Amino acid sequence: MTCLLRNLLLLGLLGPAVALAAPPAGEITVRADQATFRQQEGLGVYQGNAELRQGNRQINADRIELRLSDGAFSRAEATGSPVRLREGDILDARGQVLVYDVTSQTITLTGDAYIRHEGRTFEGARVVYDLGSRNVEASGDGEGQRVRLVIPAQDTRESTTTPEE
Q: Where is the signal peptide (predicted)?
């Protein structure tokens, strides 16, 4: 019974918000209109205006599924129209499906995936963002949707002021 109570606390079924065991990036908090936990499967399902926060990283979706492996948070899968991901001013992303793999520290977006990362825009059927290296990979769907990358022009104007001597 103690294990069940601990898992219920971890997945927030005893309150509106939850703090999960998280990777070094910080605790994870999840909120939603409705939640279900399946003890034997290690699965928490959050539906209706679901939100996951970890530090300054925020995921908003219609539905978020959280997976536990050996009692520790291992994966989140979010679906929505669209799912949105923000990480401060560095990252803004959206897609129909988002998978956050804690072990590999990657976020994979599929279904009209879009990521704006440090001013650059990546679009495609599938976009993978590595949280550690901040690398981005994008791919098309093979049926006409191609990858699109936009790199903003840099301000190359020289300063009109002269340094004082």
A: 1-21
Q: Give, for 66, the enclosing helix (H) or strand (E).
A: strand 57-69
Contact between 138 and 122 under an 8 Å Cβ cutoff? The reply is yes
Non-local CB neighbours of 11 within 8 Å, separated by 6+ positions: 18, 20, 30, 35, 37, 44, 66
CA 10/CA 35 separation, integer angstroms: 12
* 31-70 burial code (b ≥16 CB/10 A, e <16): bbeebebeeeebebbbbeebbbbbeebebbbbbbbbbbee
Greatest C-alpha distance within the chain: 76
Query: Residue 14 is which amino acid?
Result: L
Contact 52, 29 (CB under 8 A): yes
pLDDT tens digits, one per residue of 61-84 = 999 999 999 888 899 999 999 999
- Indicate the pTM of the whole model: 0.73
Please check whether residue 50 is in contact with residue 62, taking contact to mean a CB–CB distance below 8 angstroms: yes
